[in-house]
């Protein structure tokens, strides 16, 4: 039987386009995976908005469509869409919080702006709002609705998004876009001309190192909460281990985001996820 038939359309989309998160879903009991695949397929749809529209107004219209669609799920009048067809029953079955979906959509409106964040705190807030709510929804699918696990989810989501943004610098540079904070760019001596010509340089590496340090600090904050996090929450938080792997590869490349080792996933990441799940350590 083809993989797509086993996973369903949403699962196959997540497997192809968000493989790291797909791997974390596999540590959740099988009956709950369809809900997670729908959740992360929703994220794929809103996250790609900037790339699939030709102007900001069209992006705003697309995000408003998703905002309205989420609202209709909570009004028990879901519209037809391959993602919504599975997301709507997931919302009902697991009592998923509407506010988390709305936070993600609102954060994605910032992608339609060309100006980089002013300071690191602004970038961390964007990272927290794009990835943190997804992990909190993942926890809700697992039946965990509050407590230290949700605090850890916000911190891990922030770290995960920061790492992803650093790895995506070459992709954004081709579009003449920059997510590095302006204060770090100035202090580190990032040369935008070289960056947009896809050329590594020391200033860029210094800037990436600062953001990577911030991501590592958020992971440390999340692990400081371990005693209060139930073992049942660990599958939702395993992306912390994946973030560790990417940070190690960044360090090995001296924070040169154009290096092949940075763009390739860690080869043993699946084994590391299994180890974390078995030990109950994110």
In brief:
71% of the residues lie in helices and 0% in strands. The longest helix is centred in the middle third of the chain and has 22 residues, at 120-141.
Task: Describe the protein.
It is a single chain. The protein is mainly alpha-helical and 282 residues long. The chain has helices spanning 3-17, 19-25, 30-47, 49-52, 56-74, 84-94, 98-108, 120-141, 148-167, 169-174, 182-188, 192-196, 202-223, 234-237, 239-252, 260-263, 269-279. The longest helix has 22 residues, at 120-141. It is globular and about 50 Å long. It starts with a helix and ends with a helix. The mean pLDDT is 96.
Mean pLDDT: 96
Q: Could you name the ranges where pLDDT drops below 50 across 5 or more consecutive residues?
A: none
What is the approximate shape? globular
> What Rg is obtained from the alpha carbons, in whole angstroms?
19 Å
Structural class: mainly alpha
Describe the secondary structure blueprint for this structure:
Layout: H1 3-17, H2 19-25, H3 30-47, H4 49-52, H5 56-74, H6 84-94, H7 98-108, H8 120-141, H9 148-167, H10 169-174, H11 182-188, H12 192-196, H13 202-223, H14 234-237, H15 239-252, H16 260-263, H17 269-279
Helix pairs in contact: 1-2, 1-3, 3-6, 3-8, 5-6, 5-7, 7-8, 8-9, 9-13, 9-15, 11-13, 13-15, 15-17
List keywords for this structure.
single chain, mainly alpha, 0% strand
């Amino acid at each position: 039987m083809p993989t797509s038939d086993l996973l369903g359309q949403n699962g196959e989309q997540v497997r192809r386009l968000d493989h790291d998160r797909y791997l974390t879903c596999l540590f959740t009991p099988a009956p709950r995976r369809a809900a997670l695949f729908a959740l992360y397929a929703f994220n794929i749809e809103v996250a790609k908005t900037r790339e699939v529209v030709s102007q900001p107004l069209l992006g705003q219209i697309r995000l408003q469509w998703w905002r309205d669609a989420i609202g209709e799920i909570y009004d028990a009048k879901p519209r037809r869409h391959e993602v919504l067809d599975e997301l709507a029953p997931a919302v009902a079955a697991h009592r998923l919080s509407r506010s988390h979906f709305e936070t993600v959509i609102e954060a994605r409106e910032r992608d339609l702006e060309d100006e980089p964040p002013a300071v690191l705190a602004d970038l961390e807030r964007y990272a927290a709002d794009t990835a943190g709510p997804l992990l909190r929804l993942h926890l809700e699918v697992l039946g965990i609705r509050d407590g230290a696990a949700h605090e850890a989810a916000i911190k891990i989501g922030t770290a995960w998004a920061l790492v992803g943004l650093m790895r995506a610098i070459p992709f954004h540079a081709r579009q003449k876009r920059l997510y590095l904070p302006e204060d770090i760019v100035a202090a580190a001596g990032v040369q935008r001309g070289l960056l947009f010509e896809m050329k590594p340089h020391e200033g860029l590496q210094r800037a990436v190192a600062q953001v990577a340090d911030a991501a590592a600090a958020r992971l440390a904050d999340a692990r400081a909460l371990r005693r209060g996090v139930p073992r049942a929450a660990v599958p939702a938080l395993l992306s912390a281990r994946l973030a560790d792997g990417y940070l190690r590869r960044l360090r090995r490349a001296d924070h040169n985001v154009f290096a092949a080792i940075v763009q390739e996933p860690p080869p043993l990441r699946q084994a590391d996820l299994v180890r974390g799940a078995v030990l109950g350590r994110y």
